[in-house]
C-alpha cells in the first residue's frame, strides 16, 4: 500500500507531460506546525483539516500547468493540467481523497473538483509531517476504502470520523526528497527518449 502511493506519484510524473516541473521542491513544508503526538489513535480530523475542492468541472478550464484532481483513480487522480484560477489552487500540496475514498499525495500545487458529495476532499496537516508520515496516513485511508462507494461517498462528515493511528515515533524521509526522485526519473526517461 505504501509503495503504491509513491509509485502513483512517479507514474503520474512520467505520464503527464510537464507535471514534473510542477513538483514543489520543499514538499512537504509543514515545519511551522506543532509536533504530532506519536503512537496515538484518533479520528482523521484530529490529524488533518478536511477541505473541499473548490473547482468546477474540468471542462470549464483552459489548458495550463496546474494539476486538476478529480475522482478518477489512475495517475494520482489527476485528469489534466489546467490554467490556475485564483482562490481555487491548493498551493502547498496535500493529501487528496476522492469521493470513493482513494487517498493520493499531491506534491505539487493543484486544483480539486468541488461539487457536493462527489467532490475531492483535501487533507491539510495540523501537525508537522514528513513525506513518509503523509504516506503512512494516506495508506491507512486507502485500507479503509471499503467504507465508501457510490451510495456512500467520502463526504467530509464521514471522512473526518475514520480512525487513524499515528506512527509510534517520527518517520524520517530518506536522503532524497520526492522532488529529487521525480527529477531523477524524468531525466532517465528523457535520456531514453533521446537515444
Task: Write a structural description.
With 195 residues, the chain is an alpha+beta fold. The chain has a single domain (2-167), classed as Alpha-Beta Complex (Adenine-n6-DNA-methyltransferase TaqI, Chain A, domain 2). The chain is built from five helices and ten strands. The strands form three sheets. A four-stranded antiparallel β-sheet has the order 2-9-6-7. Strand 6 (94-97) and strand 7 (103-106) form a beta hairpin. Helix 1 crosses helix 5. The chain is globular and about 50 Å long. The mean pLDDT is 88.
Key terms:
195 residues, alpha+beta, Adenine-n6-DNA-methyltransferase TaqI, Chain A, domain 2, 4-stranded antiparallel beta sheet, 4-stranded mixed beta sheet
Q: Supply Rg.
A: 16 Å
Report the CATH C-level class.
Alpha Beta
Mean pLDDT: 88
How many discrete domains? 1
The appropriate CATH architecture is Alpha-Beta Complex
Task: Give the DSSP E fraction (strand runs of 2 or more residues).
Answer: 15-25%
Q: Give me the CATH fold name.
A: Adenine-n6-DNA-methyltransferase TaqI, Chain A, domain 2
Order of helices and strands: HEHEEEEEEEEHHEH
Shape: globular
The CATH homologous superfamily corresponds to: DNA methylase specificity domains
Biggest sheet: strands, sense, closure? Answer: 4 strands, antiparallel
Structural classification: alpha+beta
Q: Reading side by side through the largest sheet, how are the strands ordered?
A: 2-9-6-7
Number of helices: 5
In which range does the helix fraction lie?
A: 25-40%
- How far from one another are the termini? 34 Å
pLDDT under 50 segments (min length 5)? none
What's the count of strands? 10
